[in-house]
Amino acid sequence: MRRLLFALAIAFVIWGSTIPTASAANSTLVPCSKSPAFQARMKNAPDTYYFNKPFKAYAKYELCGSDGLPHLPLDRLDRATDVLAPIGLFLYVAGFIGWSGRSYLRATKSASDPEMKEIFIDLPLALQSITKAVLWPLLALQEFLSGDLTARDEEIPISPR
């Protein structure tokens, strides 16, 4: 046990001393309206609505790099919500789909012909599973706290090898 702790301590010290500290300051991005590369891109773009409107918005609101392309820095909280909102929505939808399928399969397991209910979907049962899945974060928390979400150690099969 001491050897393991010593090895972990040595690994942590080596890892902590070799990785450079990341800088969170944005020193390379400038407002797009002041970027020469962005201005050149804007001048060479076709004169249509689909190019003019975005270029005007980028010049007014966004920061550009040395390549003249707009970037979305996450060093300010107001910009972080631009990324966190889609991530949160994606995780909610993915969890909703998974939870509704999980609850449907758990409900069909107790039926007389579970294999047939997996092939031919029982629509009332599926709609019930979908409506329950709207609150999947709360249901997952409830099942986790009650111990139903995870399997006990004695329920997990171990290979004889």
UniProtKB/TrEMBL annotation:
Biological process annotations from GO: photosynthesis
Signal peptide residues on this chain, from the entry's feature table: 1-24
Organismal lineage: Bacteria, Bacillati, Cyanobacteriota, Cyanophyceae, Nostocales
Role played: Participates in efficiency of electron transfer from plastocyanin to P700 (or cytochrome c553 in algae and cyanobacteria). This plastocyanin-docking protein contributes to the specific association of plastocyanin to PSI.
InterPro entries: PSI_PsaF (IPR003666), PSI_PsaF_sf (IPR036577)
Membrane-spanning residues: 83-101
Protein name (record): Photosystem I reaction center subunit III
GO cellular component: photosystem I reaction center; plasma membrane-derived thylakoid membrane
Keywords for this protein: Membrane, Photosynthesis, Photosystem I, Signal, Thylakoid, Transmembrane, Transmembrane helix
Origin species: Scytonema millei VB511283
Family affiliation: Belongs to the PsaF family.
Alphabetized Pfam families for the sequence: PSI_PsaF
Domain of life: Bacteria
Compartments it resides in: Cellular thylakoid membrane
Stored SUPFAM superfamilies: Subunit III of photosystem I reaction centre, PsaF (SSF81536)
